Please model this.
Amino acid sequence: LYGCADQRRCHDGRGRSTVMSKFFTTSTNITKQLDDDHSITFKKLSYGARQRLISKCSKVDPFTQEASIDFAMLSLETFKARMVSWDGPEFADFACTAENIEKLEQETAQAMLALMGEVSEELDDEEKKA
Model:
């Protein structure tokens, strides 16, 4: 069904060329500038990781059997799962941990989420072209 024509060439970080399938999420980290002095590094989630987060943030009413998702919690848990690191003078004394992500100022968190959203849209556009 899907052959080698559906694969892309990339580099494995050691200068070697390797074949990367467009059907699997790689562990490639993405770094974006938050401002002139600060950057964030994050990753794209795999299907399985995303489904586990949705399951974690879902509830089923035992009486009505209706399912509901806590979208605020899903957004927070997705943010924490995608973040890899941050860099810059304002982050110097704070490790990139789930606890510290929750302590971010609202404006900073929103700016980071916007960068992640831009990359998700870019990746989706690239996937559509492939």
User: Anything to note?
Assistant: Residues 25-129 form one domain.
